[in-house]
Specification:
The protein is α+β, with helices and mostly antiparallel strands and about 325 residues long. The chain has two domains: about 150 residues, no CATH class; about 160 residues, START domain (Alpha-D-Glucose-1,6-Bisphosphate, Chain A, domain 4). About 50% of the residues lie in helices and about 20% in strands. It contains ten helices and seven strands. It has a seven-stranded antiparallel sheet, with helices on one face.
């Protein structure tokens, strides 16, 4: 097998193994969730070994690719370069076959590449002859990663809070907190530019606890809400009653609630504080929370700056 054929085989088979792991995991977990008999040992095996992971699965892709590349004696720079091509193949398959959106691909691509490169670099050492001592030192680290990574999959609520100073009294700000018309500004965040829906307006069915609200995003994506706390000119809290269905938007998290607090500064100005609560269901949580926090802050800024312009008579 010539050099180019070995390189391509590693990329192709590595990605095929990755997809096989994902499909196998989804199939096994679907069987368990359907009420089939399950022993604790089986559940543990599924959770530890085959649960789709955006770290362990691409690491396995890189490891398999490195096995095919072992006879090429690639330098570190070459491994990193060919790992990038391997990542692009996998991401292209996600887009064309699985229908993943550009937003999701943009978010996962740095993580996928890093994990594939780590697997390929590990394999570069592991499959090299005459490195037995180094191989023995790597094996426990890989085993530890396989065992520890599932323990990090704990769904936890996150909250993001932002504030803006408005040159208007709470009485002037309050009506625009309850509901506001179309936001004319163009989106100003990277994820909005590539397809993540952004808020455009809100509706409100009444000024009382239990009132229905809706936050309408671009593309007609709608977030349905119910008022759970209502203190005129001071506080508005609402629970999310229906998640948006747009896969680019929020297919991998659960939105729980939102809140606006108006703080009277006593000098004719108001500090508007906006908060959002959500739970992520993708791992590693710390990585995706960086993206989610950034997107949530962009939503807050877009909404609260529009409210400020309306209250100050500048809209």
């Amino acid at each position: 097998m010539d050099r180019q054929a070995r390189l391509f085989s590693g990329m192709l088979v590595g990605n095929a193994v990755g997809w096989l792991l994902v499909v196998l995991a989804q199939s096994l977990l679907s069987t368990l969730e359907d009420g089939q008999p399950r022993a604790d040992s089986v559940v543990s095996t599924v959770a530890v070994v085959v649960w789709p992971s955006l770290v362990l699965v691409p690491f396995a892709v890189g490891l398999v690719a490195a096995w095919f590349w072992r006879a090429l004696h690639l330098k570190v720079g070459e491994v990193l370069l060919h790992s990038m091509t391997t990542s692009l193949f996998g991401l292209l398959a996600s887009w064309s076959v699985m229908g993943e959106g550009i937003v999701c691909i943009l978010m996962v691509s740095p993580l996928i590449y890093t994990a594939i490169a780590a697997g390929a670099l590990t394999g570069r050492v592991w499959f090299r002859t005459g490195e037995d001592r180094l191989k023995l030192s790597i094996l426990p680290m890989v085993a530890l990663a396989v065992l520890v990574e599932p323990k990090l999959r704990v769904d936890e609520d996150a909250v993001v809070t932002d504030e803006v100073l408005i040159s208007a009294t709470p009485a002037q700000v309050w009506p625009h907190v309850l509901a506001f018309p179309e936001i004319p500004d163009r989106p100003n965040h990277l994820l909005f530019w590539v397809g993540l829906p952004y808020p455009t307006r809100t509706t409100n069915s009444g000024e009382f606890v239990g009132a229905a609200r809706a936050c309408i995003f671009s593309g007609g994506v709608t977030l349905h809400e119910r008022v759970s706390e209502f203190v005129p000119r001071e506080r508005l809290t609402f629970e999310i009653t229906e998640q948006p269905t747009h896969p680019e938007a929020y297919g991998h998290l659960t939105l729980h609630r939102g809140q606006f607090i108006l703080r009277d500064n006593g000098n004719g100005t108001t500090t508007l504080i906006g908060s959002s609560w959500y739970a992520l269901h993708v791992r590693p949580r710390w990585y995706f929370d960086l993206w989610m926090e950034s997107a949530t802050r962009a939503v807050h800024r877009r909404v609260m700056e529009h409210i400020a312009r309306l209250a100050e008579g500048k809209a």
